[in-house]
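We modelled each protein-ligand pair independently. The example shown here corresponds to the zinc ion entry; the chain sequence is given first, followed by the ligand as SMILES.
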Amino acid sequence: MSRFGQFVATLALVALPLASSAQTAAPASADVIVVNGRIYTADATRPIVQAMAIRGGRVVFTGDAAGARALAGANTRTIDLGGRSVIPGMTDAHAHVVGLGDKLLAVNLNETRSYDEVIARVVERARNTPKGQWILGRGWDQNDWGNTAWPTHDALSRAVPDHPVMLTRVDGHAVLANAAAMRAANLTRASQSPAGGEIIKDAQGNPTGVLVDNAEGLVARAVPNPTRQQVKDMISAAIAEMHRWGLTGVHDAGASGQTLELYEELGREGKLNIRLYAMISDHQPTIEAWFRRGPLVGGYDGTLWVRSIKLYQDGALGSRGAALLEPYTDDARTSGLLVSPAEHIRDVANRALVAGFQVNTHAIGDRGNRLVLDSYEAALKARPTADHRFRVEHAQILHSDDIPRFAQLGVIPSMQASHQTSDMYWAGNRLGEGRLRGAYAWRSLLNTNVVIPNGSDFPVEYVNPLISFNASVARQDGNGWPAGGWYPEQRMTRDEALLSMTLWAAYAGFQEAELGSLTPGKRADFVVLDRDIMRVPTEDILGTQVLSTWVGGRAVYEQR
Ligand SMILES: [Zn+2]
């Protein structure tokens, strides 16, 4: 039996006893019943139903309206969907929670149409920020201001004299600092541009406040690390943003020891109202501490899982850091780089198997992926483990020989469909035609009977999970380009795309007994949408509105 076959069989065994026990323990009435909808359950035994009942944060019934209404009592809330569609709560299986929160709490300078508008937004923030505290912003682009020359700090420094301010350009390749920030960083006319960077200076030789590339660090290093409370605020802001887009779960692809502590603190305070599957960053003392402690599974009322390690094998394709078997097509001098030696991946994998942890390794290039599969294979040979669910994060470019190895080894390719639609404009330059056939090749992988958890890699990409849903089924960007889809033979079906963000994501986090489908006995995480993403024309998918998001039978977001 294939691994996925085993998975489906296991699932049935898990789900059925819960369902029958829910029925036999019937006397208590439901907290919520949902009727008159088109509910996609992601449960193969009953894929589409009209109604559902929820008690104690869990689904207790799916089926027809009469069956749900039979469970209603005096205090039951009834939700009439008016024919609208429901899907299980979506999970982003690869994203960066604190990175998103950091971005959300910075002053948003996207779509500013003038430098004055930038200054106004910073002044507004300064009004509510204690003097002396840094103000960070991001998203400005002087090309949108009708004057493509670099700005200078003077107007900003006059308007905001008492707070150090650092504003990052939309592409991250330049910052604008005000006078207070330059003072704090000791940046003066005597400061020299570092290699790979430039301090822009005026005709008199004074810094203008604009720092390009490697010069950004001259000011950035003066920004204090966020306090614990600030990081907690970032996490909370990120969770609220995820709810807005219909996400009820996230796999955080690399959490530091401090972030993990703060997740637990928020969990104790009852503020972690999302299914957070946190991968431990590659930091030996943190990993050792967690190996001694052991896996945390569904802690804090089913909100926190810590039972995996995040490693890096290679870099990224855009910067030619992805490790390739042959040189880059557009730069024959390089074939990428390894962020960690292969021995490190094998060593951590060995120890993780002993401690009962999963290993999830970033690999983008075909060589990076082969090395990770080799390391996993060696570790599994030394310590055969039936249900390790080791993952490769991204698995973007695969040699055809390596595609079947995922299924053979039981390794899960964790892929972000949004990367395909972001990279397709230039991936061919890097790789050439031949290698594109194994790039973002989810159909080739699915044909070997693996599951693919989907994700976005936000904040590198947008939070909206339907961008990846659309990319999965259409392999087109938001403008429908290219017509017919980019290497359309690699498309997923809509059923597969839905599973990739629900049940398969849950499986990739060992959570499928609790999460991932609307099955009696599981947590009642679901999303109400304004249209049926399983049936609308593909060009209408990205316009979908999330009407409400529910975690454990409780609305955590309702569109106003
Ligand atoms: Zn990532």
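The longest strand covers residues 247-255.
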